[in-house]
Design brief:
This protein has helices at about 5-15, 35-40, 45-50, 60-70, 85-95, 110-115, 115-120, 140-145, 170-180, 235-245, 255-265, 265-290, 320-330, 350-365, 370-375; strands spanning about 20, 80, 100-105, 125-130, 150-155, 185-190, 210-215, 230, 295, 305, 310, 330, 335, 345. Helix content is about 40%, strand content about 15%. The chain contains 15 helices and 14 strands. It folds into 2 domains: about 5-30 and about 270-370, Alpha-Beta Complex (Aspartate Aminotransferase, domain 1); about 40-265, Aspartate Aminotransferase, domain 2 (3-Layer(aba) Sandwich). Its cofactor is pyridoxal 5'-phosphate. It comes from Actinoplanes italicus.
């Protein structure tokens, strides 16, 4: 197996911990342990009596049941808990795919969903979202890419980094396209609970026998440091995941699952406040883009807390983003990390004051003609 470098992680590895103002993240502002304990009622007695024994290969039964009840069809046999959704995605892809399998991926997109299948030797076919059409997904184009040789379709809506989504009727058509080819439909639902104009889409695992959904604490829950995620999949697929996990992580740590259970039992208390702040920040982002139409073109995100504006006049934003960080202390993500170099990823899930200041500094940098000229070299 040969994996390409992940440009997003390479960029964040250098800058993430030293940024003065971070408006790059695709997640909401993280919560503290104090908030978690106060919100869930978790007492020190529960923590103190925890025994650090080995855990279940598929996850602790109570945790799996809560996930099945909230996002699945209530059948906990279809749930596996993981170390973040990245592990879930890795396990499923490794268990399902072989070299030569035909797999449809979406670009621009998150590297785990785009490149991992390549590393397994699969024949990847790109469903490219058109920037000139505001990244609106064309299901007609997808249908042309899928045939009887297609083993899997890998998507995520609302999407990272663009924030675009699809409607429930479109989701059902997507399911029909996968079903018609007998393909697995892998659905990264990291942003599922962060929608603004419509209700969250149902998990594909409840709509299709070969639908597989992934979830995580890293985005809507504001708990990226817990590294907790899950997948909902047919039991036979999860059995294959266990075979892979037996050689890697074995199980999720009991402490993490204890915290996860309490969070899941109080999910709305974590998601709700951050979603409402993101809604207000989304409006701030809209006003910012509208105020500078000669330099910024933005499709307002349907969901999630990541936007993907195009910086007009810059063929490649990489050097601009580098100078923005070094000269003004503001962290954003160059679009080249997602295969769309004219764009940048801006996160709007954090504190409103930081977003406002970051956008002001970004505007100042765009107005700096010398910086713009250097960025265009």
């Amino acid at each position: 197996m040969r994996l390409r470098p992940a440009p997003l992680e390479d960029w964040l590895r250098d800058y993430y911990f030293t940024a003065e103002i971070d408006i790059s993240s695709s997640g909401v502002e993280p919560y503290s342990m104090t908030w978690l304990r106060q919100t869930t009622g978790l007492g020190y007695d529960e923590i103190d009596t925890l025994v650090f024994d080995d855990g279940y290969s598929l996850g602790a039964p109570p945790v799996r049941q809560v996930i099945a009840d909230r996002w699945g069809d209530g059948d906990a046999r279809k749930v596996m808990t993981t170390s973040g959704s990245s592990e879930a995605i890795t396990l499923v892809l490794t268990a399902l795919l072989e070299a030569g399998d035909r797999v449809v991926v979406v670009e621009p997109g998150y590297h785990s969903l785009v490149r991992f299948a390549e590393g397994l030797g699969c024949d990847t076919v790109t469903w490219r979202l058109d920037a000139d059409a505001g990244f609106t997904p064309s299901l007609d184009e997808l249908a042309e890419l899928v045939d009887e040789r297609t083993r899997a379709i890998i998507v995520n809506f609302p999407q990272n980094p663009t924030g675009v989504s699809i409607t429930e009727p479109e989701l059902r058509r997507l399911v029909a396209i996968a079903e018609g080819a007998g393909a697995y439909l892998l659905w990264d639902a990291a942003f599922a609970d962060l929608t603004y104009e419509t209700a969250p889409l149902p998990c594909v695992s409840t709509l299709y026998s070969r639908g597989i959904g992934f979830g995580t604490f890293s985005k809507a829950f504001g708990l990226p440091g817990l590294r907790f995620g899950w997948c909902l999949a047919p039991p036979e697929v999860l059995a294959g995941c266990v075979r892979v996990r037996d050689y890697t992580t074995l199980h999720v740590a009991p402490l993490i699952e204890l915290l996860a259970l309490r969070v899941l039992e109080n999910a709305d208390a974590f998601i709700g406040p951050r979603r409402e702040r993101a809604r207000a920040n989304r409006e701030l982002l809209r006003r910012w883009a509208q105020a500078d139409p000669e330099r910024v073109s933005l499709r307002l995100p349907d969901g999630g807390v990541a936007a993907f504006p195009r910086l007009l006049g810059l063929g490649d934003t990489y050097e601009f983003c580098d100078k923005l960080f070094l000269d003004r202390g503001v962290l954003v993500i160059p679009g080249s990390c997602f295969g769309a170099p004219e764009h940048i990823r801006v996160g709007f899930g954090g504190p409103t004051e930081a977003l406002a200041e970051g956008l002001d500094r970004l505007s100042a940098a765009l107005s700096d003609s010398s910086l713009r000229e250097r960025s265009a070299w």
